[in-house]
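Lab meeting minutes (informal)
Scribe: AK
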Amino acid sequence: MLITVRNNYKILRVVNATAQRRHLTGTGRDSRLTKPASGDIPQPREPINLVSPASAEPFIKYSDAFTERGYSKSDIFLHPEFIDAEEHDLLVKSCNKKLRRLANDYEQGHFDKRIHNYRECTVSAWLPNKLGIAGHIAKAMGRNVDEDPVDLPDRAPAGKSSGWTSIGKHDGRIRHILERVWGLFPPQLAWLPPHVLDLHEDGEILPHIDNPEYSGFVVGGLCLLGTAVSTFKHANDPSIRVDLLLSPRSLYFMTNHIRYQFTHEITADPGQRAWGGQPIPKAHRISLMFRDAKEPAGGWGGSLATGSAATTMTSAEDDRRT
């Protein structure tokens, strides 16, 4: 039964939470702009090679230096219309409902000073057990993964319930949408619960690099509501850059070299907030974020003994941004 794994995991998470928050609070402003040492960067067991569809070409700009230095365009993935209009509206409605229940009012600043005028929450009900950390631990230990604690009537036999009380009216349908995202990647990746980031019209995300100790190899998001320009610059040479026009319904991911060698940002600077010579108006936007968890050195099977899985989960919750 996965319940034993899950309970042990919760204990480990509590034990590691205080120490990890202390570590992150001490993170300096400049350190978020520093490229990590290569030995600190997570490496996937299989290559991540996502190819953007041809429809993405008008929404991606690579600098001359990016191509001249030999960086791969596949390090950035963009799918402009990954979801349809009906799915977009359902996600907006559901994200707003979760934010009203789980998040406070818009916050003016975060402890790392990299994001302003935002609110956020994590929605564990949208992540199937089999895809999360607990599911990977159970599989590594040769145990079955429990049924998910969410009612999915469209997957249950006709006239029967899955045996759980519904957590949210549309959670089952949202799971179907999000499984298309996770299905783009190799199955060995363990995913953190989806993270809802609501950025106010006047909000911004300043340039930063995620902490590699507590993040996995890929990060990306489904873009809802307003359009934004996201910029990725090499930490040591800002002339090496990629710009994305993130329109509603689009899905993007960064991985490989861009993941930990480039800063990423969504700026409020009017000079950067333009595309094709036309200004992009400020707009309220929501990003539904996806991150994989950093696999412990001993694999998921040894993570309960070391507590490393709990440290990864707790730390990643504090480190999730754009």
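Next up, CB showed the second protein from the same session:
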Amino acid sequence: TKEGGGEGVKDEKPEPKIAKEESSNGTDKDDGAMELEDDGEGEGEDKENEGKEEEEDKTPRFLSEEEQEEYEELEREGFGKWTRQNLTDFINASARFGRNEIDSIRMVVEGQPPDEVERYHEVFWKRYKEVKDHEKLINRIDKGEKKLKQNEEDRLALQKKVNRHKKPLQTMSIPYPSNQSNKGFTLDEDRFLIVTMDKLGYGDWEGLKAAIRNAWQFRFDWFVKSRTTKELQQRCKKLLELVKEDNDKWEAQQKARSKSKRGRKKGSTKRKRPGTAAAGRKKSRK
């Protein structure tokens, strides 16, 4: 039999049917997982078979013990109980955590056991091209993973900047452009924003606003305490750009210093061995 459906069942055995669940208003649920089992035939052929299936359903059938076991096995292999909402949850979780983070994905698909989500994950990435509009679904996951990658780069940049200073809130330097003002923010306020972004992660604007509200050094600083989350986001975006530029310059300086040290060390090893010059003079006098 074919995984995810019963297309491979022999003709003499009754093909198992996975009935769609009915919603409270009497309409069939949109079954997202059934798209993995779609045989690709047109609707016209389905309509032609409707009459035959109705006639066949009127005839009582009795399955042998072997056929019943096969029927139950096919039901377990398929995803007839997956709805379109389950598929949406699965795609959103894959975009949020990354397609390979199954431990996180399996815990957020509502209405499905974690083991069932893990099994669906394995089948989906083998046969996702059979799903309707799979290009849009994969594109959504790709965009989410791209954002995850960018967030990781931002996190490392902030971490690198902060870790270069023993007391970043007091000593961290910020290379402001000479032709641009600080737009009301002081150096101490900017230092706090960078250090807190490193602690909370870039993008947690509500958490950043709460940290400012609870910071003792800003208890009388109405300017920074009255900034909206949008204003904080704009300021932090600019600070992150400055941090990345400063990191690049710092790394370039470190490489130049390291190269200079290697050059001096290499030059010191080329000194003549003791006694070489004296031996040369004796030989010339002979």
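CB comment: The longest helix spans residues 229-268.
No objections, moving on.
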